[in-house]
Amino acid sequence: MTALLALGDSYTIGEGVDDAERWPVRLAHALDMATVEILARTGWTTDELAAAMTQHAFHPPYALVTLLIGVNNQYRGRTLANYRDEFRALLVRAIELAGGRPERVVVVSIPDWGVTRFGHESGRDVARIAREIDAFNTAKANIAQALRAHYVDVTALSRRDAELTVADGLHPNGEAYAQWTTSIVPVARRALSLR
Fold this sequence. Notes:
- Helices cover 50% and strands 12% of the residues.
- The protein contains 9 helices and 5 strands.
- It starts with a strand and ends with a helix.
């Protein structure tokens, strides 16, 4: 049981960066984990990730499972109540994939895409984007706490270093993902140390 499973969307798959620069790959390397399995696709919402999980051949239990999903729910204007329900169901499944051990699951916050060049050029209200992402993240953190999973905030990093993007002006670059990994590693190490 030395595998890391990373579930998510474009931020997990690392849209626009080389495989080695993706934060789950960096995390697995930092933790000396033998393998990393990524189930993520650019544009996925919570229900789309859930559908993909139903079709995917998993090999549990995983030593560590990460879950970062929700930005596309916000982007498409889906409700907070819908997000709460679907995220909770995903987290329950993530815990099952970690052998029923919530302490082996790390939930990662949604970054703020509104602060990026793409966000500013989108014509959308960036203050509203920030408020909605904060609300989604609060719900996500509360659900993680209720189900006894770990939670890591990378949203503050995304707001501080908004210029660290790939050519599309939206998705984080390798330097940004390196900073995310630095934040996630201690929490992941603690998760792996729990018996």
